[in-house]
Amino acid sequence: MLYDITPYPKPRMSRSDVWKDPPRACVAHYRAFCDRCVLAKIVLPEAGANVTFYLPMPKSWNDDKKHRHRFQPHQEKPDLSNLLKALEDAVCKHDETIWRYGELKKLWAERGAILIY
């Protein structure tokens, strides 16, 4: 299933991020990402899920550079583990039940999205 949600990594959080108002920008973005995942009713199976994170290319890139990078490996920050951690925390009350993933990857794309199959 393809979800039209731009992936966002789990930020490093402190205790004050729970009560601080307004929250730090990274925490606010993370919470908004979690809300979008819940509204989209994303489900992660306990085993075998293949997850692809499509990260949007910067608008400052020219069309030629965008064409060369389309669906190529994204080898910059944010790292794959933080993207997966954010997704797990957003959609699973008990993410300890997930015991195996299939393929995990992050790729460049025109728009951000998450593919789970």
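That was protein one. Protein two is written in the same sequence-then-structure order:
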Amino acid sequence: MTTPGRSRSSESDRPHEPVLVGEVVSLLAPRPDGVYIDATLGFGGHARALIGAGAGRVIGIDRDADALAMARDELSDLAAHLTFVHADYRAIGAVAAAQAASGVTGVLADLGVSSMQLDDPARGFSFRQAGPLDMRMDRSSGTTLAERLADVREADLADVIFTFGEERRSRQVARAIVAARDRGELTDTGALASAVRRAAGGRGWQRIDPATRTFQALRIWVNGELEGLEGFIDAAFAALAAGGRLAIIAFHSGEDRIVKHTFRRLAADETQARLLTRRPVEADDDERARNPRARSARLRGLEKVA
């Protein structure tokens, strides 16, 4: 599995920095007459780079209304090139049909959680700072972490933690969480992190906080991040015009596995698609040192032939 998190001392020490920007621009090869969709807009770093490299129009999708509002401000100087859409990235088919009926030149999806979300305790993603047990990317819909934990069975929770976090002590962690819940101790993310650390932590200093894998698993579970990913890829590919390109950055091994196999399925018909990356593109040493988030990033690309 790719590295799931950051050191205990810092989940995010700097404002959100997009990963593999140069590689994404090279892969999508933006042009002035092209229409591009950034399906996970975030703070807009990739969108800015695409426009700076010549993209005529970028449609930015994000299911996080707060992130979308911040992106509007951050990218206000490029408003003439941008369209903002509040939607789940998996709704790309409907967005493309409404915004680019003649076809899309390129699509990007950065599947990772942003540093902005991690840094805001009110969102409930952080194990460093106490916040509500929420973890929803889109706070206007869906079930919060607190609601999911309220009646989850211990065995089911262990499966979630092992499958999405690859936590070797998933059973012990699930047992500790359920016990803390039953005692009425799960009041916020700080209490949750403490329960997890007691069950998953070893002795002495550790590079990765013992709560990292479990918090990753719970976030993926709450947001259904692996559900519908293959469908998204199929819909994004269908939205592309001939010669259009699809680029996806994955941070979790399960996500990357789905991307790899779906790309290979589509490219099995050489008259339909071709792989642009036989192996995933990874950040170089300089980017890894500068931006810890880049350490687990894997970029894959696909081109629509006809």
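The mean pLDDT is 90. Keep this in mind for the problem set.
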